[in-house]
Design a protein that fits this description.
The protein has about 425 residues and is an alpha/beta fold. The protein is built from 16 helices and eight strands. It has an eight-stranded mixed β-sheet, with helices on both faces. Helix 7 packs antiparallel against helix 8. The longest helix is centred in the middle third of the chain and has 25 residues. The N and C termini lie far apart (about 75 Å).
């Protein structure tokens, strides 16, 4: 018997006369064999099952298959009625019935051997739902594949397939989707780490096994955390590390992490424009890269981050335009004060200042009026966001989204003038 935590087994049976077979499961160390015509009978012999829930239609419940299983399994077996699944409504009823039988946090195995019609497809969707919504651990998904039987034996030897890896594909898909939509690499990194760890746990030799998957996971996680927590200088630095590792991991991913290999080039093309050799130097390349990062935030629908970085970008841009790039991270407060002053004088017209009291660049820079207006608009929207719309004249969400897209074009114009 395979040693797992106690599990609830979910199985199905139809009102059909099944053929006898010798089902076998190869664990690598030993081979389990059991002869029967009713596959659910095998589950408590193969796994430490403390409950087996058998989902049956009304017809199947009256069939001798169900009655024989009840006699063999006794109190271990519980039957649960489901409809035949002949309509969309009945399919949803099956989904709901199965999901309700599984408590939150349970460990389960799922057997689809005798699943009829579209049940196996429904079951895979249920498994995904239970993992995501009820924190259920799917220990195994098994299938006694009678089509793959060896008829040279009597009864035919029939392999039991472990389909649990299909859930790994779901994890890959969720991870890829999370990164592509929101820049969140946590699930994708977890899948890379699990893949490498699993391969090493199964083998006594490290030769030929992947070396870069976990390193790639680490750098992806670093990039994602810096990106989502608005650490732009760290983000562009980690982007370089990720791109370098993606090249090294290409061969390993093709062998061991095919879902990742299939999107690796897209991933690299997405991150490549964000990398920079030295993010600590304020120069045109740095500003251009940060501007691309602002656009990247918008593409990921991280509008708040885009606004906050755009405001900081304005400060950095003014320092660069006025040849004050040295120690640029230590002198930002004075630059902000200059921007606030021209906003109050030129845009808001709240105070009167003589020309001599305005910043030197305001008289000389042909873009000074645009800079003042941009800073004023960014400051208003930034304050609107920071105060969480608690003010009575807060901007509507769609207004905020449209404004940042408009502002990006104005920011870009400052670099080309």
């Amino acid at each position: 018997m395979i040693q797992l935590k106690e599990t609830i087994a979910l199985s199905f049976i139809a009102p059909t006369d099944y053929q006898h077979a010798c089902y076998y499961w190869n664990t690598g160390e030993s081979t389990f064999e059991y002869s029967t015509d009713l596959f659910p009978e095998i589950l408590p012999k193969l796994f430490p099952v403390n409950k087996l829930i058998l989902f049956v239609t009304e017809e199947a419940e009256k069939h001798s298959n169900c009655q024989r299983l009840q006699a063999k399994l006794g109190d271990l077996l519980k039957t649960e009625r489901i409809p035949q699944g002949k309509s969309e409504e009945e399919l949803w009823e099956i989904f709901s019935t199965v999901a309700k039988q599984v408590p939150r946090g349970a460990h389960i195995i799922i057997d689809i051997t005798h699943g009829f019609r579209s049940l196996p497809l429904i079951v895979f969707n249920i498994a995904t739902y239970l993992r995501r919504v009820k924190d259920v651990v799917i220990e195994r998904i098994v299938y006694g594949n009678f089509e793959a039987r060896d008829n040279s034996f009597n009864p035919p030897r029939t392999p039991i397939f472990d389909l649990t890896l299909t859930l790994d594909l779901q994890d890959w898909l969720h991870g890829i989707d999370a990164f592509q939509r929101r820049g969140d690499a946590e699930e994708l990194a977890n899948s890379l780490e699990r893949t490498q760890d699993s391969l090493y746990n199964k083998s006594t030799k490290s030769n030929g096994l992947p070396q870069q998957l976990k390193n790639t996971a680490k750098q992806l996680r670093n990039f994602s955390e810096a990106f989502r927590l608005l650490r732009p200088l760290d983000t562009v630095s980690y982007a370089t590390n990720v791109c370098n590792l993606l090249d090294k991991a290409q061969g390993e991913a093709s062998l061991w992490a095919k879902p990742f290999a299939n999107i690796l080039n897209d991933l690299k093309n997405e991150i490549l424009p964000l990398q920079i050799e030295d993010s600590t130097i304020l120069n045109l390349e740095n500003l251009q890269t940060q501007l691309r990062l602002i656009k990247y935030y918008i593409a990921k629908d991280l509008v708040v981050q885009a606004f906050l970085l755009a405001r900081e970008w304005m400060v950095s841009m003014l320092m660069f335009r006025t040849n004050r790039s040295e120690n640029w991270r230590d002198r930002r407060e004075s630059i902000e004060e200059e921007l606030r002053l021209v906003d109050r004088v030129f845009v808001q017209k709240k105070i009167s200042e003589t020309e001599d009291e305005l910043p030197f660049w305001f008289r000389n820079d042909p873009q000074s009026e645009n800079i003042a207006n941009l800073w004023s608009n960014l400051s208003k929207l930034r304050n609107d966001i920071a105060h969480c719309a608690m003010n009575t004249d807060a901007a509507l969400p769609h207004t905020i989204r449209s404004k940042i897209k408009e502002l990006i074009q104005s920011l870009k114009a400052l670099l080309s003038s």
